[in-house]
């Protein structure tokens, strides 16, 4: 997997109470694949990791939430832990940060309780996904199609249930990238299906494409997902 994500920047949004292994192991995998990874939290300094019911390590924060622009990232990782997403849901800036990735159709990978915040950010309706089982009802009530699988991928959203699923979760995050890049080269401007590659495969401002169903070959004025091949 080395080098597959060279040039990509991934934000990891978390706070105190994060399930430590659900942050550290995906971060290792992303870095091994060449991605630049930035841990973002509502406060600077460190956040407290947990190993299920036991206190874990203090995890360094790279950037505080109020000092970072989500537009500077290609993808988002949401680790779990019960307390972590529960606190983030009470942080309007955190939900706004996540909402950027949802609305911009950038890749998001969320594990365990991590998908909880996607409800508040409007990112689950109509999506196939999984999570820790206790979130099944909440996600279903928000319009998601919940599955009991170790990893589920749906249009750039990768989700898993628990720490035991981390190997499959990491592989799917990264395996989707070269597949999407190949698709984009074969059909320039076509929507990318791969997770971490999909954001970079979208046409950028100034590129000719057909956006939002409007027919024509006029240049884009913003990043868009074309409904037909450019």
Notes on the structure:
The protein is an alpha/beta fold and 230 residues long. It has 7 helices and 12 strands. The chain has helices at 20-32, 83-88, 92-103, 116-120, 136-141, 166-186, 198-201; strands spanning 9-13, 18-19, 36-41, 46-51, 54-60, 63-64, 75-78, 108-111, 128-129, 145-146, 152-154, 157-160. The strands form 3 sheets. It has a 7-stranded mixed β-sheet, sandwiched between helices. Helix 1 (20-32) packs parallel to helix 6 (166-186). It is globular.
Helices and strands in order:
Blueprint: E1 9-13, E2 18-19, H1 20-32, E3 36-41, E4 46-51, E5 54-60, E6 63-64, E7 75-78, H2 83-88, H3 92-103, E8 108-111, H4 116-120, E9 128-129, H5 136-141, E10 145-146, E11 152-154, E12 157-160, H6 166-186, H7 198-201
Parallel strand pairs: 1-3, 1-7, 2-4, 3-6, 7-8, 8-12, 9-10
Antiparallel strand pairs: 4-5, 11-12
Helix pairs in contact: 1-6
């Amino acid at each position: 997997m080395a080098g597959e994500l060279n040039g990509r920047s991934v934000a990891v949004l978390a706070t105190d109470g994060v399930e430590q292994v659900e942050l550290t192991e995906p971060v290792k995998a992303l870095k091994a694949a060449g991605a630049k990874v930035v841990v973002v939290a509502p406060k600077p300094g460190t956040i407290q990791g947990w190993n299920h019911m036991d206190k874990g390590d203090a995890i360094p924060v790279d950037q505080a939430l109020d000092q970072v622009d989500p537009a500077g990232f290609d993808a988002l990782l949401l680790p779990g832990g019960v307390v972590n997403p529960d606190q983030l849901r009470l942080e309007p800036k955190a939900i706004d940060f996540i909402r950027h990735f949802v609305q911009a159709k950038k890749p998001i990978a969320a594990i365990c309780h991590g998908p909880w915040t996607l409800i508040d950010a409007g990112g689950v309706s109509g999506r196939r996904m999984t999570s820790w089982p206790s979130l099944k009802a909440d996600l279903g009530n928000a319009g998601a199609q919940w599955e009991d699988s170790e990893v589920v991928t749906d249009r750039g959203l990768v989700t898993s249930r628990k720490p035991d699923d981390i190997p499959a979760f990491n592989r799917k995050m990264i395996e989707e990238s070269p597949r999407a890049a190949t698709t984009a080269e074969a059909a320039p401007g076509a929507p990318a299906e791969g997770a971490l590659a999909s954001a970079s495969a979208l046409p950028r401002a100034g590129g000719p494409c057909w956006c939002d169903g409007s027919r024509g070959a006029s240049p884009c004025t913003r990043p868009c997902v074309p409904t037909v091949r450019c």
